[in-house]
Amino acid sequence: MRARGLVWVVVIVLIAFAAAWSYAQSLQVTPVTPTVLSGADFGFRVEGNRAGTPIGTLVIKMNGQWVEAEIGGDGRPKRITSR
Asked: Burial code of 23-41, b = ≥16 C-beta within 10 A, e = fewer?
């Protein structure tokens, strides 16, 4: 009886480990050749792919070079009021 319970615990732990491993694999980013999708001076540099979703960086063109853009403030949306 005790051995049967131990077997079930081992099986459950192995299933949980396999599920966690497969989930972690789906989160990995597949690198691609960096490509800038852009307008004249503003773009998005695609640097990878995670489960079909492009991963990258916002960039702007300064002096003919694409540089990473940094969003000002704390990055949180601001409430717009009518006052």
From this structure: eeeeeeeeeeeeeeeeeee
| Dist. CA 59–CA 46, nearest whole Å | 10
Tens digit of pLDDT for each residue in 13-56? 999 998 888 887 767 777 778 778 777 888 888 888 877 788 88
Q: Is 10 left (phi over 0), alpha (psi -120 to 50) or beta?
A: alpha
Specify the length of the chain in residues. 83
Q: Where are the domains of the chain?
A: 2-68
Position 66, amino acid: W
